[in-house]
Design a protein that fits this description.
heterodimer, A: alpha+beta, 10 strands, about 55% helix, B: about 260 residues, alpha/beta, nine-stranded mixed beta sheet, two-stranded antiparallel ribbon, about 25% strand, globular
Amino acid sequence: MVEFKLTKEQLLAKELFKNFAENEIKPIARDMDEAEKFDMDLLAKMKKYGLMGIPYSKEYGGEGADVLTYALAMEEVSKIDASTGITISVHTSLCCSCINDYASEEQKQKFLRPLVDGTKVGCFGLTEPGAGTDASGVKTTAKADGDFYVLNGQKVFTTNSGFADTFVIFAYTDKSAGTRGMSAFIVDRNTEGLSVSKDIPRMGIRAASNAEVALVDVKVPKENLIGKEGMGYKIAMGALAGGRIGIGAQSVGIAQGALNEAIKYVKERKQFGKPIAKFQNTQFLIAALQTKIDAARLMVWRAAKAKDDHENYAPLAAQCKLFASDVAVEVTRGCVQMLGGYGYSREYPVERMYRDAKITEIYEGTSEAMKMIVGGGLLR
Amino acid sequence: MKIVVCAKQVPDTTEVKLDPKTNTLIRDGVPSIINPDDKAGIESALQLKEKCPGSSVTVVSMGPPQADIALREALAMGCDNAILVSDRAFGGADTWATSSTIAATLKKLDYDVIITGRQAIDGDTAQVGPQIAEHLGIPQVSYVEKMDVEGDDTIVVQRQFEDRHQVIEVKTPCLLTALAELATPRYMSVHGVFDAYHEKEVKVWGLADIEDTVDQANIGLKGSPTRVKKSFTKQAKGAGTILNDLSDDEAVKAIVDKLQEKHII
């Protein structure tokens, strides 16, 4: 063990993310949630200041930072608004990583560069009505036809799809080969036959775009295949493994954001003649919740550092997501309780945070799937 | 165009606490920021650079070693060079000693335009910028709220007054003191943050680096003619009066009566 401290660069970058979130996101977070719509001016600012290309090499137009810095961005942004967090996360951890990790040099210059330099936004189409935790259940097919593949199928819960320019789509090129018959394709939004539904109404992260994507005879050039035929499942699982660090960091952010609100409130709110912060019940609850948040944060940092160091980070990422998402739900529930009736009202942001927290136990692998990964690894 | 911005790191609070014994600022535990007027100066320098290709922006700060972070932030915003003027010999400086030290530093640099903030939120003197211009013997325009460049060597600035504006053309080299309104500072960029530590550097200059341009009688505590007799934190006044349920006319009358009673109008 060396130390638990962030580097100077990471600390200064954290300051940038904090200021950006406070000044640009906080004033509109509630309105975006109410309107169930992501603010396109905010998206433009996120692109401009490099929030969409944090852990990618400058060689491809990225910011040249590390995964831990990206996790700090996810935490700081999600402290204020989890919807903005997931918008960054799906683009960065899921879409871009598939291309960064498995695409050819030529493909990276062509497709990764505009995604990480802030020109385009990406999304990730794996989940289907019949393929959730069991991603092998994908029904979308891709048939080779001359210089093209022709894609047909239906994706659901595709985050960012409402405004994304670039879609990474998973489809079977050979269903008979099982998961080894799945392939990954880069599909431009404007390709004929690709259509995106209206956003799906949801309990939380309501400002994020999340819709169904229909693919009807979508002709994708052969040069848009990522890696080789049959590598799709591996590519998807790799992206999701890394994505869990982002969701872990998002969970920590939601929890810390809610607790910060609660701490502010209990110092001001008076009952029985004194601020409720003076009651031991409040003090004990705040102490317990902050301790859990800190533990979750350290697990996120450990997984991020392992990824930066090219170690086997996947089980650590699964653990951090499993724990941090649980902490996010518990902490936000506790914070709504501390604010009482005001916590339940939409006047304060903690009810939004409570609603937003729940999805962290579900997307990019449910808590049950995380236990399968962690337990499976231990009992191998 | 060679642009130099002078920036100060200040405590991030309008309620600066003073050590009653030494009459100096208590910096411990207070987060530090780049002084807002200075930060607007940095932004306008960066805008000037973008307008005049081939320009460079150097940011200079005098302060303790911790001021390094303020200069890194300036680099992360896009400034090219940074110099931290820091030496125990400079400690305890008033505005005269500060401006003498910074002017001695600037004499070692090439510059067309020097931008300082109007004043710092911790001391509020608004003296250092104008004094630097006097030390250097160059024209100065204070209270700049707008600026633009014309040709190679002319800057057009708008000065703010309480009741009017003044538009002035000034030839370079010159010194401008910026108001926070001059420009809204950009954020650092993520790659800018990493560049600030890996690609760029903060040079630290001590007394030895400016020995030939500074008069040592004018630096540090000993070179400071100002003596602080007493400093104190302002006490809050009593609670105000709130008048409820008045019509517009009654409210106006109540306010006017009160102002007359206090001989304010």
